[in-house]
Prior knowledge:
mainly alpha; 6 helices
Amino acid sequence: MGANNFFSVLGKAGVILVLSVSAVSVFGQDVVKQDSIPVKPLAIYQVLKPSCMPCHSNEGRDKPRNAVNFSIWEQYTSTERLMLAGSIQKEVQKGSMPPKGFLNSHPANALNAEQVNQLVQWCDSLKMKP
């Protein structure tokens, strides 16, 4: 059956089949290769991406990006990561981050208790590394 006949049969049957495969999304889930993420582990990156990285990444504004830039996290020295981990943990536990102004326009990006706990544990793990 030629391509024209195939599409003719599909059109007559009233059936349209569209199969879309994306490198970015499969079944509504982001597909991210572990080695391509700037912050590891992947579970932490998935918390940081919507709630922190809009401001604290290469795409963010100068002031928050200069405070901590998750796009270049692996480029920080272990001492810098240690200091940043303490600040991140403190701000997240206080509920200061993400800030209220950001959450007013992006309420879905608020951190829930489980995500706060994940970030706190991640920060603790960074503080234990030499």
